[in-house]
Each structure stands twice: as structure tokens, then as C-alpha cells.
Amino acid sequence: MQPPSRLLRLGAPVELLSLSVLLANVTFLHQEAVASAIGPLHGCAYLIALIAAAREAGPDRTVTLLAVIPGIGGTLALRRLTATARTGAPAGSRAT
Questions:
Q1: How far apart are CA 66 and CA 24, in angstroms?
Q2: Residue 69, CA distances (Å) to 1, 15, 62, 80, 89 in order
Q3: pTM for this structure?
Q4: Exposed, middle or buried, 16 (CB in 10 Å: 0-12/13-18/19+)?
Q5: Among the ranges given (20-24, 46-50, 53-57, 90-94), the one the predictor scored with the smallest mean pLDDT
Q6: What pLDDT does residue 29 have?
Q7: What is the pLDDT of residues 53-84, one digit of tens each?
């Protein structure tokens, strides 16, 4: 199995980082300019990670379901795809 695409490897961390910035802004700064700049970036990164994960999922639809989780879903999908690529078997299966 191939390693995850470059699109997912870039989109997942951007999604997580942008959500962190948005939450920090809501908690501490309350700057409308930060929310206006980072909000659309987060939305785009979320959609990119979701679409990239769905394209790579193949028969393992768990990857797509993980990617739906806002903020951390892209990272979780990336971890599952990386584990699957390393072992060559689906991440949830066990060798007997």
C-alpha cells in the first residue's frame, strides 16, 4: 500500500493548527481580524483533508469517517493511513 498523499500530509496539520489558533483567539484575544483570516483557512484545510482522505481510503471507510471529525480528523486519518501503509494490512485487522 502507498503512503498517504502529499495533499493529506499537508492538509491535516494545517487543519489542526488553524483550529488551535481559532480556539486561542476565542479564548484569549477576541480579535475579529484573526477569526476573519484563519476561519476560511481552517474551512479549506478541513475540506482538503476530508477529500484527500476519502480519495485514499479505498476499502477502509474508517479513514473517511475519521476525517469527518473537525479539527483532528485529518490527523487521525493520516495516522491510520500511515499505519496501514507500514504494515501492508488494514489497521484494524489482526494477523492469525
A1: 24
A2: 24, 11, 12, 14, 24
A3: 0.84
A4: buried
A5: 90-94
A6: 92
A7: 999 877 778 999 999 998 899 999 999 999 88
Confirm if 75 and 8 have CB atoms less than 8 A apart.
Answer: no
Give how far the C-alpha of residue 89 lies from the chain's centroid of Cα atoms, to the nearest Å.
Answer: 21
Give the residue from 23, 26, 72, 80 showing the smallest Cα distance to 45: 72
Alpha-carbon gap, residue 20 to 17, rounded angstroms: 5
- Smallest Cα–Cα separation from 54: which of 41, 67, 44? 67
The chain-wide mean pLDDT, for the chain, equals 89
Cβ 96 vs Cβ 72: under 8 Å: no
Roughly how many angstroms between the first and final C-alpha of the chain, as a whole number? 20
Q: Percent of the chain, pLDDT > 90? A: 70
Please state the separation of Cα 65 from the chain's center in Å: 11
